[in-house]
Design a protein that fits this description.
The complex is a heterotrimer. Chain A is built from seven helices and ten strands. By secondary structure, chain A is of the alpha/beta class. Chain A has a six-stranded mixed sheet with strand order 6-7-8-3-9-10, sandwiched between helices. In chain A, strands 2-1-4-5 form a four-stranded antiparallel sheet. In chain A, α3 runs parallel beside α5 (about 140-150) and α4 packs across α5 (about 140-150).
Chain lengths: ~240, ~220, ~220
Amino acid sequence: MTADPSIHVIGLGKAFGGHLVLDDVSLDVRPGEAVALLGPNGAGKSTLLRILATLLRASRGTARVAGYDCSRQPESVRARVGLLAHGAWVYEDLTALENLKFWATLGGLPNGPEALGGALAAVELDRVADERVRTFSLGMKRRLALARFVLARPPVLLLDEPFAGIDQRAGKWLDEHLGAFKAAGGAILMATHSFGRGLGVADRIAILAGGRVALDTPLGALAPDDVRRLYDLHAEDGA
Amino acid sequence: MSGLQRGLGWLAVASLTAGIVMALGVAPREATQGNVQRIMYVHVPAILIAYLAFAVVLVASVIYLWRRAAGADRLAHASAEVGVVFTGINIATGSIWGKPTWGTWWTWDARLTSASIMFVIYLGYLLLRAMIEDRERGARFAAVLGIVAALDIPLVHFSVYWWRTLHQPSTLLRPGPAPMDPTFVVALTINLVAFALLYAYFLARRVRLLEREEQVLA
Amino acid sequence: MIYARRAWIVLWKDLLSERRSKETLNALFFFSLLLLFLFQFTLGADRERLVAALPGLLWLGFILSGLVGLGRAFLAERENDCWEGLLLAPGDKSAIYLGKVAGNLLLMLLVEAILLVLFAVFFNLDLAAHLLPLAPVIGLGTIGFAAVGTLFGAMTAHVRARELLFPVLLLPVQVPVLLGAVKATEAVLLGEPLAAVGHWLGLLAAADVIYLTVGVLTFDAVLEA
């Protein structure tokens, strides 16, 4: 029952210059579990995700993803984590198919025509596979980014504001996909601003404030309004 | 300031004094150039120590990229600063020496030119450090530049040397017997040691200062 | 093998993007044209003087257009945060560096070919006869420029004042390449055999090897966030 956590963070701290962004963060995410990371701007949500993705090095503390240490075994972590950050990692002048082929080849993933076509179909971009990404909406670019995960099949997803700037329909689609990923045993850590849609797939919420996890609680039967009240309470306390 | 550092400082002052006495008092007047030649006692040690300083930048940069030790980064930073100052002294004294000797403040003489290119390269190095706010990123980029710059020095040297040579052959590093009065050699050596001590003192002080700066910022 | 595939896919991506947008190439073409006008206006109509200064002018044109072109080389990676993906891609990052160098090299060689044609046409010069011995000189010089330019371009892409910092860092380091290339070009245009400038070619080759080696070994540290 108690599987090893997919994400395991203890006493994590990160300072930029003289400014302490993360002070003492501890958090676990288990396989098949989705945790929504809430917090005001500048609370360090993105910083935490970037440390877990090995884009940044922590100043202190430990972070482990899928059993590998983020600062000492970054290559092993990189092979097991999918990061969807603010930028969708797409080249505007390449087509959807070309973009996917580029990342698949660079990452040593399956890059044959069937694999690429299948991945594009999975994110419902097969009909625009040969169109330039420049013409895509933000939601379509996000979906193209998700197509990489279809190829790589990482056991852990780190998502930074995945619902920001996309329309209702794309949001619903994303919810369904994340739900399926979770059901297959994947772990999700997701930074979000919105109390409504963003919480759809979440099993737990963790509120980040003052460089610490101010509250870590199962979402259970909490309504969005309850979450907002909790958020206001803790975010102000920590700040 | 530690006692060791203070001792180093006084040692530098003492040897510099001895160097000045040797250069201006004891060493004989050079036959063809006259008293102007005495500027060599500053000009030559300055550039040799600058080379040493940039070699230290290279080694410290490699160590930084390898081990990511903040101490190596501070050492590279400090050594580059002192090296730039010493290169500047070399260029300035060379220019002053050039006025009575060649009749002009500046000629595109091979060694003066390569010293100035080196000067500009390492000024760029310091500029890069100043322009990057994130300390860790600044350290990494500076280390890469420190390696490129140091490996570039021999290339600069050869290319400029082939491009134009006006200078008299290198004073100390020439192979074969030195054609100079032994007093010249002694005076030059004392000044070289004095500059080396001065470099070590400046380096120690700057490293300490950078350390303090980081403590205040952290 | 996998290494070569990864370098190739980076080159493929850059060339394809450039072929679609033609942003850099178009801009550089007009920039080269402007440079020619500039040379003409500042040196006057005296053809003798232009010819005497030709090796220097040629390389000035190459280097100025190279500065403009290489300075942009990593901007595409900044857009949509693609550099994060490059950094997180498994395996040796130097493959990405070599792919980038190759792309920049091809772009610069293309612009240089355009500049040569423009020089020949507008200044009424017979460059065709010298093309064969000129090719290795231009090739060796441009490799060195692209090798350091790519490395520094990746660094300065993260800096606010990159338009300023990029040339300030790159130009002094490139002095040996510039001197060697200009001197060798001068000799070639005077009809001397390549053997007469063997030492300059040797220096250029040595510079290329040193720059590429340092680039391969340090690119990892440059790419890191």
